[in-house]
Amino acid sequence: xxxxxxxxxxxxxxxxxxxxxxxxxxxxxxxxxxxxxxxxxxxxxxxxxxxxxxxxxxxxxxxxxxxxxxxxxxxxxxxxxxxxxxxxxxxxxxxxxxxxxxxxxxxxxxxxxxxxxxxxxxxxxxxxxxxxxxxxxxxxxxxxxxxxxxxxxxxxxxxxxxxxxxxxxxxxxxxxxxxxxxxxxxxxxxxxxxxxxxx
Length: 199
Description:
This protein is α/β, with parallel strands linked by helices. The protein has a single domain (about 1-195), classed as Ribonuclease H-like superfamily/Ribonuclease H (Nucleotidyltransferase, domain 5). The protein has 8 helices and 7 strands; from the N terminus they run αββββαααβαβαααβ. Strands 1, 2, 3, 4, 5, 6 and 7 form a 7-stranded mixed sheet that branches. α4 (about 90-100) crosses α5 (about 110-125). The model has no long low-confidence stretch (mean pLDDT about 80).
């Protein structure tokens, strides 16, 4: 009960580093817009970080069915065409699968509060309970020194700047699974000085 209260009171990323032995999940979503109150979920990508490795073989990846027209500018960013979305999973099924796959593992993301809000909106629409897991933001972790002290003079960096500083190639940018994997690799590089990947 106390832990659930803390999750709501402390913003993502201000808790310091996750415990070293904790398995966390790097998550990214693609949506129809940037307003979490109205954006519809289009795809989910998630990869576990386990034993200092990004475990791609245990990833979660789903395109969510969306019948409404998509904006041309959005398609250029996330590369999901109307024909891709028509053949996606029904939203309730996609969210049920994701919820079961994630379990109670903490999540990690870039602007993770947006990802969590978009996921929670889709979960509620599917009649499922919202995520009640710890969340960490790679932007805030990037500002932590190894000992856990926040370097407040540093601004929150954009994702490409964090990847460049961590020595991580952009991979498949603006795809949910590509950005989730890149987030996981950046986390390992920032925290441990190297990025580990496991197929």
